[in-house]
Amino acid sequence: MNQSPLSQKQLLQALQLDAFNEMQQTMHAACAKHSSLMLIAPTGSGKTLGFLVPLLASINPELKAVQCLILTPSRELAMQIFEVWKQMKTPYKATVCYGGHSFDQEVNKFKEPPYLLIGTPGRVLDHIQKESFVTTSIQTLILDEMDKLLSLGFEDEMQSIVFSLPALQQRVLVSATNIATLPPFIDMNAVQLIDFTHLTKEGGVFQLHQVACEAKDKLSSLHKLLVQLPAKPSIIFANHRASIDRIADYLKEQGIAAIAFHGGMEQKERDIAMAKFTNGSAAYLIATDLAARGLDIDAIHQIVHYQMPIDEATFVHRNGRTARMFASGDAYILVGPEETLPAFIDSSISNFEFKKHSPKETAIAYTTLLIEGGKKDKISKGDIAGFLMQKGNLKKEEIGLIIVKDIYSFVAIKSDRIYEAFTLLMHQKLKTKKCYIKII
Length: 440
Prior knowledge:
This protein is an alpha/beta fold. The protein folds into 3 domains: 8-199, Rossmann fold (3-Layer(aba) Sandwich), CATH 3.40.50; 203-351, Rossmann fold; 366-439, Alpha-Beta Plaits, CATH 3.30.70.330. 32% of the residues lie in helices and 20% in strands.
């Protein structure tokens, strides 16, 4: 194994951390000694750094080829891992591959092969079959969210990928829940188990509540619940895309700032949803379990189970979005008149009591402005802030979070200033580019 190009001090500085936590330190040491590992730890415990940091010592900088492969069940999770890798400020190139955008653009990224490839099984297998990159140099395979990879039916794709990696020396499985039986193709002998599931118990104050719904259609009960809860970032989980859209449309009609998020949406729509949720323009994200897998948002205060989780692993993952590592949080389970709690949920959890009068301010402090211009146009956050203040007559304190993507950007602007600013900006140039802007 090679020496890491970055010292621990440099890594911590880049990541803005004081120290790696116990789970991460244990994982770093284990990766140096074992060829087969399984890490089990709750959502929000820092698993990503647990498996990314050891990769630095396994990369041969002289070999210009893909050497490490990470498979994930969703594009959001793939992008999250990629962003953490970028934060680490390593000298090694990484590339992300997933469905929903141009295959040819991804092929072009392999002209100068990355050391690390992160992707979803279907898209990675497509590249392997079309020989976009050489697989004979891949020595490390990491299967992140392994429980979800299996439950979503990626077993055949993963098997084909594993069989195409002749030089594989290390396999790392990562999961938030224990996996009783591993498929034979994983071929992991003498697996070293790194079990940190106890962190769930040591985390923040987490409370479960069941909400009795009068009607089979839970929409009115959901609305009644939300107006009584603190107006803080919350995720509402449902099991089907059609349900997600229906819930979002209903809540918007009631004047509640909610936004849908699921795999049936185009990537730009998903980016818009995440931007609005992250910057405070939408208080409620309505999501499927898969869509929410890759979200790395620390400030989730409440979880609402609009539809029952399909199994215990899903229940654990959903609840793991809140009370992340010593924070506090609450989860509310909507129970219809013909429903009972699944066996894996304690039936003695508290009943939520509706108050008779609970008027609540539903206005949102920020509104999002979409700008058709981004990193590929050499546009930075500073450029956008200057544009808004100079051409839009906005003060610094009236501008919220700025998110710059490759070809478009999102800005949170105080809601009482957005329309005046939009009128001033719509015919202006950002740097030398005439950018299309839109209130979303």
